[in-house]
Amino acid sequence: MERCRDLASDGCFNARDLGGFATRDGGRTRWGSIIRADAMNRLTPLAWQEVEAYGIRSVVDLRNDVELAADVVARPSSLKTVRVEIDDVGDAALWDYIWSNELDGSPLYFRVFLEKKPERCADAVRAIAQAPPGGVVFHCVRGRDRTGLVTLLVLALAGVAPDDIALDYELSADRVRRLEAALGEKEQGSEIAQILGRKGTSSTEVILDLLSSIDVEGQLRKGGLHESDVKALRERFTDHDDADPRQRRS
Predict the structure, then answer these.
(1) pLDDT tens digits along 73-82
(2) pTM exceeding 0.85
(3) How many CA atoms, within 13 angstroms, populate the side-chain half-sphere of residue 109?
């Protein structure tokens, strides 16, 4: 499954298809439906061609205004890009709390953010659920934190097992290291591991604890996610045939 899911390409290091996971109702998440990624502004012309050929028609950009950068090359006109600035950087009190308690950069911040900002989380999920027909890719900068949180939400709504959700999160570690090395950025993984160690936990343990103690769907509904959004996400993302849908197209 890993070989099929990894979609890294020229300029994009931490991209993968979220298809192929078993769901609690006996189905599978649909291949080519929802893809997670790091920032896509570095994609080359060939990489954009690959995006189109894969069936992706929508991009949900989770970055803040100050993080935006011009595309290296113009993205195809067939793609619709929607911005959902999930962070709410204007809430200084929340971010002071997250930073002072060393929660940022790992799943440690997922719980407090989902509890304090369910409307922002719901906005991101809704943008994916209600995207036009075709594959939809969502991303932040490294494809780890905000993208990791939204991945957890959509996989949980689809009925994917907590162990699989935690496993998917862990796959970003090596990819982010490659991204940082390629772009000459500071390596963050060691510092994050030290923080988790001081707190006596791990990314996997944090995610499993969160999923066992919080009603993800209920929290998103508090944030304004409607039944129609949940239904649209599941119809888009789940299937009781685990074959790659690209092989069924005429």
Answers:
(1) 999 999 999 9
(2) yes
(3) 26
